[in-house]
TrEMBL record:
Needed co-factor(s): heme
Protein name as annotated: trans-cinnamate 4-monooxygenase
This protein's record includes keyword Membrane: yes
A single GO molecular function term of this UniProt record: trans-cinnamate 4-monooxygenase activity
Length: 508
């Protein structure tokens, strides 16, 4: 029986339904058949629903992705369930993504967890490229990212590191069995940023407010960087199983924003009584001005504080921690740093921010620490809102673009013995800087979405490492040749897995 004869044999209502069904099926098939075929980047063969997820697993860290780049090339595609993940692993293509097509690839992907923590992009770091991002970045520039801010902040950077050195000297174990310097440096970083933001500091390590702040920031980092929630992000059908995880994220987000709000209100109470002059203003005063002028909402104000808490404190702390571990493990390099500091400044004269341009070796050590152990080795993921072209391939709209900055800086094709900590590699004539003047070395990214905090991060890291080397001979604990430099990666972060115990013997 032909199809027409079959339809005409059906009762009228069923004939209509059946015809509709046939039209839908034929349309879907036609759409599929005639849809222009995309020329996608290479990558492992994907299976339906799961894509490559079952093959490559959850842990898409910089080292695993570097191994895949060796197999699939400088750009490859992973299909993680519903998500397209494009990994870029050459300086030429990094330039294309971050610079030449910086607008096309200048958005950020979010996911179910980041949507909670950023209020669906009401912040700056994780928002798509566009008017909101431009406005937020402009509003954040004056209070945080200018040389004037560096000059206003440097007296308290000195006070904070002085306090650290004093505390280490006061601990009788520090010179013998060792001291977890990182724990004390965490307070230093919080104080550096909270003085800049709110003109306030935490006097005591056990201040309950400080402990709660650290707890909530730690939870935020852990929940956002974990691979645990990938399944629900990659495969929307599985999302209902994430309900408890997302509930936990929501609770941490609410508690955290409430706590951050209490710092903003505390500052408002002070400035209501005595309005600051322009020179006395701290960052939040400028940001609240932008709110009063109607440029941003009060929620945007809180998300700026939120962004600084995640983007500034941990990243800088991790970088100091990696640098310190390498200095401890390389006594010759430590000695060379001390010699430079002594000969340029004179023995016992503490290094300060204006001295930094005269200390090239210290600068090389900081850059080398960031090359070998990048705090954000895959940069913050980028995204193309519309379908785009890269290296002749089609990149589907809303792909997550990972630039493997760690591999660019650790690929033996471009670096001599990249696994060796060797600051002198930066002493050559090439003058590779961290500001993106060379696409093999992008610890802060480059282009529109690059890190504006570089202007603060480099002097803070340099001052802390320089002062520690001036004040102490730093070595591993007794019986240990080296401190452990194993890393612990997250969705796009890399920190030292075990905080180093460091013996700090005061230098005479
Ligand atoms: C050593 C310390 C730091 C490192 C390694 C670092 C690294 C990075 C990287 C790799 C990015 C993403 C670049 C991209 O996606 O192309 C980024 C973005 C960002 N960083 Fe940093 N950062 C550090 C310190 C800071 C500090 C101290 C601040 C603020 C005071 C800061 C604020 C930001 C902000 C706001 C963004 C987002 C920019 C945007 O999306 O437009 N960072 N950082």
């Amino acid at each position: 029986m032909g199809l027409l004869a079959f339809v005409s044999s059906l009762p009228p209502a069923e004939a209509i339904l059946f015809s509709l069904f046939v039209v839908v099926v034929v349309s879907i098939l036609a759409l599929h058949l005639f849809k222009p075929k995309l020329h996608l980047p290479p990558g492992p063969v994907a299976v339906p629903i799961f894509g490559n997820w079952l093959q490559v697993g959850d842990d898409l860290n910089h080292e695993n992705l570097s191994e895949m780049a060796k197999k699939y090339g400088e750009v490859f595609l992973l299909r993680m369930g519903q998500r397209n993940l494009v990994v870029v692993s050459s300086p030429e293509l990094a330039k294309e993504v971050l610079h030449t097509q910086g607008v096309e690839f200048g958005s950020r992907t979010r996911n179910v967890v980041f949507d909670i923590f950023t209020g669906k992009g009401q912040d700056m770091v994780f928002t798509v490229y566009g008017d909101h991002w431009r406005k937020m970045r402009r509003i954040m520039t004056v209070p945080f990212f200018t040389n004037k801010v560096v000059q206003q902040s440097r007296p308290f950077w000195d006070e904070e590191i002085n306090a650290v050195i004093k505390d280490i000297k006061a601990d009788p174990d520090a010179a013998n069995t060792g001291y977890v310097v990182r724990r004390r440096l965490q307070t230093l970083m919080y104080n550096n940023m909270f003085r800049m933001m709110f003109n306030r500091r935490f006097d005591k390590e056990d201040d309950p407010l400080f402990l709660e702040l650290k707890r909530l920031n730690g939870e935020r980092s852990r929940l956002a960087q974990s691979f645990e929630y990938n399944y629900g992000d990659f495969i929307p059908l599985l999302r209902p199983f994430l309900r408890n995880y997302l509930k936990k994220c929501q609770k941490v987000k609410d508690d955290r924003l409430n706590l951050l709000k209490s710092f903003v209100e505390e500052r408002q109470r002070i400035t209501d009584v005595k309005p600051p002059s322009n020179d006395e203003k701290c960052a939040i005063d400028h940001i609240l001005d932008a709110h009063k002028n109607g440029e941003i909402t009060y929620d945007n104000v809180l998300y700026i504080v939120e962004n600084i808490n995640v983007a500034a404190i941990e990243t800088t702390l991790w970088t100091i921690e990696w640098g310190l571990a390498e200095i401890v493990n390389n006594p010759d390099i430590q000695e060379k740093m001390r010699d430079e500091l002594n000969s340029v400044l004179g023995p016992g004269v503490p290094v300060t921010e204006p001295d930094l341009p005269n200390l090239p070796y210290l600068h090389c050590v900081v850059k080398e620490a960031m090359r070998l152990h990048m705090a954000i080795p895959l940069l913050v993921p980028h995204m193309n809102l519309k379908q785009a072209k890269l290296a002749g391939y089609d990149i589907p709209a809303e792909s997550k673009i990972l630039v493997n900055a760690w591999w660019l800086a650790n690929n033996p094709e471009w670096w001599d013995k990249p696994e060796v900590f060797n600051p002198d590699r930066f002493a050559g004539a090439e003058k590779i800087e961290a500001n993106g003047n060379d696409f093999r070395f992008l610890p802060f990214g480059v282009g529109r979405r690059s890190c504006p905090g570089i202007i603060l991060a480099i002097p803070i890291v340099s001052l802390v490492l320089g002062r520690l080397v001036q004040a102490f001979e730093l070595s591993p604990p007794p019986g240990q040749k080296k401190v452990d430099t194993t890393g612990h990666g997250g969705q796009f972060s890399l920190r030292i897995a075990n905080h180093s115990v460091v013996v700090c013997k005061p230098v005479n």
